[in-house]
Every structure is written in structure tokens, then in C-alpha cells.
Design goal:
Layout (H helix, E strand, L loop, with lengths): L1 E9 L3 E6 L5 E13 L2 E8 H6 L10 E14 L5 E14 L1
Length: about 100
């Protein structure tokens, strides 16, 4: 997906350690971005090297940006056995217009 957006807010860069299936430690890197597209407010997340590369980037809330990314869906059962759904937007590129 590609969208023309304005940025409302940007979260802090975060690294969270986890263990890979082979037992070696790895870090999940992320930085969240709240964007507005028309009347819609979208939360997206930069992950991995993109997040690391943009850990210090300051985004201007008065500029237009082109946000590129993809939606990911997951389904799970909650503690009451109800089926739940979640959509997440992962940013793959965020550039000024």
C-alpha cells in the first residue's frame, strides 16, 4: 500500500530482546508512527533496520509524506474461546513528498 499522509506523532525507538528458535538472542527494533490520511488515523510501525536507521529522525507534522507498507492480519482465540482479529500496518518506507 502507498498513501499520502501527514504525521500526527512518532514514538520513541525501542529494542526488545527475545530468543530465536535456535536459542540465540536477537533484538526486535521498532518505532511507531501515527498518521492521518484524509479523515482516517492510522498507526503504523517501522521495524528492523528501517526503525534503526530512523531512530533519530524528526518528522515535520506540517509536511506531506508518502508512506509505503503492508497490512498484516492475525487471528487468535481469546481466553473465552472467542475468535479475535487484528490488523497491523508495517511501514517499509516513509519519505517526504
Amino acid at each position: 500500500m502507498e498513501a499520502l499522509v501527514t504525521i500526527i506523532a512518532v514514538g520513541a525507538y525501542a529494542e526488545r530482546q527475545y530468543q530465536r528458535q535456535d536459542g540465540t538472542p536477537e533484538y526486535f527494533k521498532s518505532r511507531g508512527v501515527t498518521m492521518k490520511r484524509g479523515g482516517d488515523v492510522i498507526y503504523g510501525e517501522m521495524t528492523g533496520e528501517l526503525a534503526s536507521k530512523n531512530r533519530e529522525t524528526v518528522y515535520d507534522t506540517n509536511r506531506l509524506y508518502v508512506a509505503k507498507g503492508f497490512w498484516k492480519h492475525r487471528t487468535w482465540q481469546d481466553k473465552n474461546g472467542e475468535e479475535r482479529h487484528e490488523n497491523a500496518f508495517y511501514i517499509t518506507d516513509l519519505q517526504t513528498l
